[in-house]
Amino acid sequence: MSTPTAPDAIYRNDEGLGIWEHRGKVAAVGVGHAPTSRRWDGRPETCVGAITIDALRKAIDDAGVAPNQIDGLVVVPVTTTGAFWEQGKPLPMDVIQSFNQTDDPLDGVAKLSAEWLLANMPELTNVQFTMYGPGCMSNALNVTAQAVGDGLTHTCLVVKSWHNFEGRYYQGGANAGDAIPGTPAITQLWGGPASYSTALQFAEYCRKYGKNHEMMAPFMENSRRNGLMFPEGYWAQHRPEKLLPEDYLASRWIAKPANLFDNDIPIMMSGAYLFSTSERAQDMKQKPVYILNHASSNTRPRSLLPTLDEVEADTARTARKIYEGAGITADDLSFENMYDGFSLFHQFHLEGLGYRGIKFGEALDFYQTDISIEGPNPVSPSGGNVGSGRSRVWMHTDCIQQLQGRAGPRQVTGVKPEVGVSGGPMPLGGNFTVWSASPD
Amino acid sequence: MTKQGVEPDSFSQPFWDAANEKRLVIQSCVDCDILQHPPTDTCRDCDSDALEWKQVSGRGKIYNYGVVHDCPVRLLQQDQPFNLAVIMLDEDPGIQMYSHLPGVPVDDVPVGAAVEVIFEPSANGQLVPEWRVIDE
């Protein structure tokens, strides 16, 4: 079996598509997370393949499904946080030989194939459908929802994992060299870090609307607070430290106006879900969470970086797609879990959604109000990547757990959890899912 | 600031050859007459592969900037913190180019100011487009 990459047609990129044809007919049931760590320690049992198996088995167990009932597997094949296995570095043969291998020795160490997973999960005897949803869990969720709805699989696992090796983020490879090839040089000679583009969008936003970086502090504090109530997350597991406004604002700049905490911390992690048809989900162990819609944005900026105008136009367009396909309005959202992997763009997602009626330029003022899980306007109850480390998964897990009523101390109490939205990553380009406690 | 050297490939050779002649060229679609940067194999608007390099005036405006304190590129780390600005071309403000804005104090960047292209040697001598603030 050779696993294909999801075709473009599987994503709902366009406006005017109407209600999603599978609205309420697909459900998420099981959730599984492996323990997190800051970096790989070199042991077989903690390599990215091993933690992925762990997360998948937990999702199966959580859903209460027999492994032989599973007939689908959707995988995000790229697992890097920005760390790559250096060319010429000796392969970790003890790790590689601990698993059944594919023809790529770094499979399970620095990347993941569906074939590797199936070779190492012999209990999955009935998987007939495999597909790659490249990029993020957000992509893979869209692929999974559509595949289940289309009948390509009826009980499907979906997984996203991350590996993080030694060394500083993105500082190896070409960035360490004295010269680079001419084509990438046209844009990469100037040395902007990963958060630079978002920092510039935020700078333009502040100039246009008269806001400032200090206004981010309540959002950051709230996100870490929520993250510390996320037992699956990195900060809760390893560094249970609050993020006070004074600590946030005193941290060093990376690409001003983005500071250290505005950049999510790279970690090892794996998160998995079990999706099924709504009908089959009724017999599973957890309460089904219904998918009302999935929507995507494939917009590219005109030139090097998205301008604020481009960002605002696209987040508004994305929101229209989200609401149209789900048959809801902004008023139906109980909470939002849009992406925050650079914290300085979360407000773009919020404003595009019109969450709680906020308009462009108003989100940072909204952050100064009660955005806690106890209040009427919860913002990022998952805590996102700010609260639990880089995964782009927490937001989805939280939507499922909130709507199942098992988010524990993170459970929203100021609103009745009925409909949530999650997705990302960037304001231009992203994949989004609308979750509901009810199929209607 | 000395940037990494550049090893032109066949695709980028015209851009870098022009830079060595102190000319700024931008990719343009022959069919729809639209500039695009960064350059790609096909026109982002009409998907035509009939692309050419068009010389532009080398005049623009500072659109936006940030200050880099933690740069992933080793050769630039000794110069941290440094300005990293985005320039919009006068011919088409939708076209952006990066600049370290030589001579402009760190974090004291006049957003909106007029700039003109200059060319600076990189680590291997290849000239690279940069931008300096000018009086209009």
Which class best fits the helix and strand makeup of chain A?
alpha/beta
What best-fitting shape of chain A do the alpha-carbon axes yield?
A: globular
CATH architecture of the domain at 8-166 and 266-281 in chain A: 3-Layer(aba) Sandwich
Q: What portion of residues of chain A is helical?
A: 25-40%
Subunit arrangement of the protein = heterodimer
Explain what the structure shows.
The complex is a heterodimer of chains A (440) and B (136). In chain A, a hairpin with a 1-residue loop joins β6 (253-256) and β7. Chain A has a nine-stranded mixed sheet. Chain A has a two-stranded antiparallel sheet with strand order 6-7. Chain A has a domain at 8-166 and 266-281: Peroxisomal Thiolase, Chain A, domain 1, CATH 3.40.47. Chain A starts with 25 loop residues before the first strand and ends with a strand. Chain A has helices at 48-63, 93-96, 114-120, 137-150, 182-188, 196-209, 217-227, 234-238, 245-250, 278-281, 308-326, 346-353, 363-366, 384-388, 394-404; strands at residues 26-33, 72-75, 129-132, 155-162, 179-181, 253-256, 258-259, 269-277, 289-297, 335-338, 419-424, 430-436. Chain A is 31% helix and 15% strand. With 136 residues, chain B is mainly beta. Chain B has two domains: 8-55, no CATH class; 57-136, OB fold (Dihydrolipoamide Acetyltransferase, E2P) (Beta Barrel). Chain B has helices at residues 13-20, 74-77, and strands at 5-7, 25-29, 35-36, 51-55, 59-68, 82-89, 96-99, 114-121, 127-133. In chain B, the strands form two sheets. In chain B, strands 7-6-5-8-9 form a five-stranded antiparallel sheet. In chain B, strands 3-2-4 form a three-stranded antiparallel sheet. The mean pLDDT of chain B is 96. β5 (179-181) of chain A pairs parallel with β1 of chain B.
